[in-house]
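Ops channel
N.P.: pipeline sanity check, posting one input/output pair.
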């Protein structure tokens, strides 16, 4: 009995020693993604992008000579799940940086936890307010909606010559922020929307929204739709009810999930995209590697996570440190750093990008039209 107990203790001690040794020999980066829940497909793409970055960085020697280890937490596609995931990762002293979710509403819910943890956190949410709440630990690896709204409005009004706008938006933080920014951007061009229509995420019937658009006489629709599934349903019902207005949407309009769900209903539509495989050399290299590894088309869910992990690795290697404050200073010191989504220069608020690509859905293929940079 005594020998058995000693053997068990020895085995436990050996396991603990091994775990400590493994942690000491790697740099652990936290990742919060939608592994389960209604946005699980998008979450899997985020995971793909992060893992592809880990493979590439580790092949080049990792961070400070150590291999990267991802520590993944599932937020279950919910705000409470995101807060819980941040609490778990933020309380772990072995994790010097975190890649958070892409959903603005989830980041908004977790912002106090991020600030309390004091760990550099890369985010994909585009609600402008997320980096303007005096939280020095948040860094955005996508352009925010102050820029997206200006690109959408300028392209629709100036290039397409369309002035009767219907705006459709989710009522969450992302959709509401985008709607407000788009209204302001259109007003700056002398255009007053003929319709502003909100909806709740995970809606199954958009008939009232579509009928309101039809009645308004709009010749162009601008959308800020959070979930790709909602956009796919909306697109089908829009065309089924005979609405043929030109459509210029936020990045969800060209996600792989939305395009698979909507099919021909999205043909001929325009979108803005922070990522497009043909936008720059880095994007082309990433897209080739992503297709080879996963046999899927890369989209924003995977591209932003790929950039986020590379920004973290670059900052740590530049600072020669894994201390959170050193990483933070190194991120703010990045100037014209080339990523797959564009060239990053982080401002004092933590925003790294201010450009978008105009793209068009031509027969189910996303075609690059032009890249537009927006001044402050």
């Amino acid at each position: 009995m005594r020998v058995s107990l000693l053997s068990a203790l020895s085995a436990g001690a050996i396991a603990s020693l091994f775990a400590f040794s493994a942690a000491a020999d790697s740099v652990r980066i936290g990742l919060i993604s939608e592994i389960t829940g209604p946005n699980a497909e998008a979450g899997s793409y985020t995971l793909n992008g992060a893992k592809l970055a880990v493979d590439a960085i580790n092949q080049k020697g990792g961070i400070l000579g150590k291999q990267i280890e991802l520590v993944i937490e599932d937020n279950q596609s919910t705000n409470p799940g995101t807060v819980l995931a941040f609490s778990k990762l933020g309380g772990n002293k072995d994790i010097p940086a975190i890649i958070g979710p892409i959903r603005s509403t989830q980041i908004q819910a977790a912002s106090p936890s991020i600030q309390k943890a004091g760990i550099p956190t890369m985010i994909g949410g585009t609600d402008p307010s997320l980096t303007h709440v005096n939280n020095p630990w948040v860094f955005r690896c996508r352009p925010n909606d102050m820029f997206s709204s200006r690109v959408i409005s300028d392209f629709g009004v100036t290039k397409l010559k369309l002035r009767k706008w219907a705006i459709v938006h989710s009522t969450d933080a992302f959709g509401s922020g985008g709607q407000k920014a788009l209204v302001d951007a259109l007003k700056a061009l002398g255009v007053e929307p003929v319709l502003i229509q909100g909806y709740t995420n995970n809606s199954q019937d958009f008939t009232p929204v579509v009928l309101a658009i039809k009645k308004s006489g709009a010749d162009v629709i601008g959308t800020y739709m959070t979930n790709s599934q909602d956009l796919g349903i909306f697109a089908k019902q829009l065309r089924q009810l005979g609405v043929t207005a030109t459509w210029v949407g936020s990045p969800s309009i060209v996600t792989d999930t939305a395009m698979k769900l909507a099919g021909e209903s999205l043909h001929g539509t325009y979108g803005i995209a922070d990522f497009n495989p043909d936008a720059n050399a880095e994007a082309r290299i990433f897209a080739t590697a992503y297709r080879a590894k996963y046999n899927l088309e890369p989209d924003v869910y995977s591209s932003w996570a790929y950039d986020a992990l590379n920004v973290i690795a670059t900052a740590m290697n530049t600072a020669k440190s894994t201390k959170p404050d050193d990483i933070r200073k190194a991120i703010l010191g990045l100037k014209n750093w080339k990523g797959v989504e564009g060239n990053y220069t982080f401002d004092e608020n933590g925003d790294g990008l201010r450009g978008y690509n105009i793209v068009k859905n031509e027969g189910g293929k996303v075609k690059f039209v032009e890249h537009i940079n927006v001044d402050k």
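N.P.: looks fine end to end. The two ends are 73 Å apart (CA to CA).
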